[in-house]
Amino acid sequence: MKILSAEQLNEADKITLENEHISSTRLMERAASLVFNEIHTRLEGADIKIKIFCGIGNNGGDGLVIGRLLHKYGYNVEVFIVDYSDKRSDDFLINYDRYKKESSSWPEVIEENTDFPEISPGEFVVDAIFGIGLNRPAKGWLAKLLKHINNSGAFTLAVDMPSGLFPNKAPQKDATIIKANYTLSFQNPKLTFFLPETMNFIGELQILDIGLDRDFLKEVKAVAQLIGKREARQLYRPRKRNSHKGDYGHTLVVGGSYGKIGSIVLSAKAVLRSGAGLCSVYTPKCGYQILQTALPEAMVITDKAEKELSEIKPGLEPDVVCFGMGAGKSQTTANAFKALLEETEKPMLIDADGLNMISENMDFLNALPKNSILTPHPKELERLIGSWEDDFEKMEKVKDFSKTNDLILVLKGSHSFVFSEGNMYINNSGNPGMATAGSGDVLSGIIAGLMSQKYEPLVAAILGVYMHGLAGDICAEEMGVETLISGDLCDYLGQAFLALEKE
Ligand SMILES: NC(=O)C1=CN([C@@H]2O[C@H](COP(=O)(O)OP(=O)(O)OC[C@H]3O[C@@H](n4cnc5c(N)ncnc54)[C@H](O)[C@@H]3O)[C@@H](O)[C@H]2O)[C@@H](O)CC1
Ligand SMILES: Nc1ncnc2c1ncn2[C@@H]1O[C@H](COP(=O)(O)OP(=O)(O)O)[C@@H](O)[C@H]1O
Ligand SMILES: [K+]
């Protein structure tokens, strides 16, 4: 699904009105009715106190429509106008009058010196103060009102966006923003919903298709692509009946050091579980028995050194090399890594200490084959590109870094991001159970395993990140988030592939 900016959504809005020959009031009615339906389906007429806070723009207009419909269906609803400006939008004014006509009372107005209404924890609040039109932080009494709502403990539903959040730029550090339990957002998700500093404000997210112009939405260049099951399914290629292991490629996993052999066991297992035909592991001598015992399906080649990588001479030509997990970053290993980079022509996958060695020797980047994949977590990223002011600046810095160096970068996190050629893909699978030792090693193995099966590196990165999260989701469903450990992600990959095939 495309992630769009406020400007693009406004444009879609305008084109829809022209092409469908409908008024903006009609479109507002359509959008807000969908929100009403969602509320009505869940509350089923329950006698719960509903308070709707409306701004004076179109987000507020939506709130008034929702209020009118709830009133019509007999709900216990109170509507408040948050009177922060005189510049009421036309559709706000039309719906203000309609509300009055149907409910036979004017909504209450909240101004600078009005006492805020009391809100008890059991009530239901609808936040329709600001949507995508926010153009400066909420200040003064307005900020106090947002805090008042946040402190009430009431369940809060945000219409389109939690008020105070910008759709496509970072909030100020001390900004006051509605902390929604649930967000019903119109037509397309906004970038801010997926970034670590702002994702907590939206609660659970649901996108409502309000029927904006299909052709426009199809053509417009997305800010980013959100990758869900439908998108992943389009990337997945089922195996051919008439095939053999040679068709699925040979992955070489290189890494491990004394005390950290487990990391490459996890990666190699993930390589095989994601469908690679063959997997070899190159490791210091101390890894030999561990690997042969833990993973009989993998072949093992050992370095001449006992405890660390000193010279990477596997004596074979793999389809893809997956480097760095548990490797350590001694000078000896860094030299061996540099030599490996210089000898390798096909795109590689670099993770963990591989990334740290690059950060300490940025010239290694020149030897990295084009289209290689780096998979940093935020700390590793910071070592690579330096610090950033906010998430939006970080995104821009990573875009530049991946473009300048001709590489694909997977930034891991609660939502992992894939960057390539200035484009951005945001993963929508996964759960906090995956915040556990070794889950990154599994991800490297999955992506490398897909690369060896001739998935283009970018496709392998996007699909691999999605499958990793999906395996985690299916696993967490069965055993809970606390209990999930990274080895389980390998074991649940099978169910993840089955779920994808069913889609
Ligand atoms: N674009 C679309 O596709 C649709 C948009 N609709 C609704 O329209 C909303 C956007 O409406 P608007 O553009 O009227 O904007 P908003 O209703 O989000 O904001 C209203 C106005 O408040 C002012 N403002 C912004 N920040 C402020 C601040 N910190 N303090 C005081 N005033 C501030 C601005 O002048 C802004 O235009 C969407 O979020 C959505 O709820 C829907 O009605 C239907 C379709
Ligand atoms: N809260 C979360 N929600 C979804 N995925 C997560 C979450 N926390 C971690 N992950 C995923 O788990 C992996 C962790 O990788 P990493 O930090 O490298 O761990 P390790 O070094 O222990 O292997 C990443 O793929 C990340 O996206
Ligand atoms: K809102």
From TrEMBL:
AMP binds at residues 412-416, 440. Keywords: ATP-binding, Isomerase, Kinase, Lyase, Metal-binding, Multifunctional enzyme, NAD, NADP, Nucleotide-binding, Potassium, Transferase. (6S)-NADPHX binds at residues 58-62, 131-137, 160, 326, 377, 441. Residues 228-500 form the YjeF C-terminal domain. It catalyses: (6R)-NADHX = (6S)-NADHX; (6S)-NADHX + ADP = AMP + phosphate + NADH + H(+); (6R)-NADPHX = (6S)-NADPHX; (6S)-NADPHX + ADP = AMP + phosphate + NADPH + H(+). One of its GO terms (biological process) is metabolite repair. One of its GO terms (molecular function) is metal ion binding. Residues 9-218 form the YjeF N-terminal domain. Catalyzes the dehydration of the S-form of NAD(P)HX at the expense of ADP, which is converted to AMP. Together with NAD(P)HX epimerase, which catalyzes the epimerization of the S- and R-forms, the enzyme allows the repair of both epimers of NAD(P)HX, a damaged form of NAD(P)H that is a result of enzymatic or heat-dependent hydration. This is Bifunctional NAD(P)H-hydrate repair enzyme. It comes from Salegentibacter echinorum. The lineage of its organism: Bacteria, Pseudomonadati, Bacteroidota, Flavobacteriia, Flavobacteriales.
